[in-house]
Amino acid sequence: CCDFLMELDTQTLVLLVSGLIGAGLFAGVLAGLLGVGGGIVLVPVLFELFGVIGVDDEVRMHCAVGTSLATIIATSLSSIRAHKKRGSVDFTIVKLWAPWIAIGAIVGGVIARYLPSEGLTGLFAFLALFVAAHMAFSPEHKVLRQGVPGPVGSAGIGSVIGIISSLMGIGGGTLSVPTMVMCAVPPRVAVGTSSAIGLVIAIFGACSFAANGFGAEGLPVGSIGYVNLVGFALIVPLTMLAAPWGAHLAHVLPTQRLKQAFSFFLLIVAIRMIYKLVTG
Predict the structure, then answer these.
(1) Using an 8 Å Cβ cutoff, are 68 and 45 in contact?
(2) Among residues 96, 60, 98, which one has the least CA distance to residue 198?
(3) Segment (H or E) for 247
(4) Which of 16, 32, 45, 9 is nearest to 265 (CA)?
């Protein structure tokens, strides 16, 4: 890791390290605050930073997603501890959804192996647009049913959350939190529970991306498949540091307003990615 960093020129090194520091702190706070795992921030940042250091375009997005998933393992552990202290993790839901989420996360890694970089980037951008719209305009605390579905319904929900989250490199909170809220789970419990769900997605998704990217050409130095250990080592300490801050803020701040502000950030990120895809 240190040898690799020493090979970069000063300007690139400063940009890389400062970008990773900012992204790590922001992602950690978001993981605890909104239950989004931080990946929704890390993927576009890693995508840009990998471009700065000259990573092959064919694997740049794959490495951004895989590395993001790996960092979420640490972020989720820190966030789970913080939420568990406040009694806001429903492990009954976790046990019901976890096996299907794990299968979905593995499938997501397999799908990514056969997607070209442009396809994976476009998928992330369009799903980010959807997430941004949902955060900005969806009614708060809208309940459609009392309690989460049984085994059959949970299999479908868990599989879909696992596949989409794995392909986007996120912890699943952007999908699992609104789903749980619609099932009459209190919002703060939904956020806390999503941190445990994110751990399942991150472990199985990262392993799938590492295995399916093994031997790929053009990977950045220090990579195991599509998981870059250099980015992981630089980001993880910061996300673990900041996740408890977010968990504390989740209990004192109006999260709906924060979600609307974050949705604007996502909108800009998605439009930028789509523009670059269209213009080449």
Answers:
(1) no
(2) 98
(3) helix 229-250
(4) 45
* Chain segment 143-177, per-residue pLDDT in tens: 778 888 988 999 999 999 999 999 999 887 778 88
Element (H, E) at 113: helix 91-113
Q: What is the largest CA-CA distance in the chain?
A: 57
Q: Tokens 């968990």 — which residue?
A: 247
| Residue labelled with tokens 């929704």 | 40
Report the alpha-carbon distance of residue 93 to residue 98 in Å, rounded: 8
Residue with tokens 């250099």: 230
User: 3-class DSSP state for residue 69?
Assistant: helix
Q: How far is 238 from 231, CA to CA, in rounded Å?
A: 12
Query: pLDDT by residue (tens digit) across 204-239?
Result: 999 999 999 998 998 888 899 999 988 898 888 887
pTM: 0.85
- Provide DSSP, 42-89: HHHHHHHHHHHTT--HHHHHHHHHHHHHHHHHHHHHHHHHHHHHTT--
Facing residues of 92 across strands? Answer: none
- Whether pLDDT at 45 is above 90: no
Instruction: Calculate the alpha carbon distances from 52 to 57, 99, 177, 212 in Å.
Output: 11, 38, 34, 24
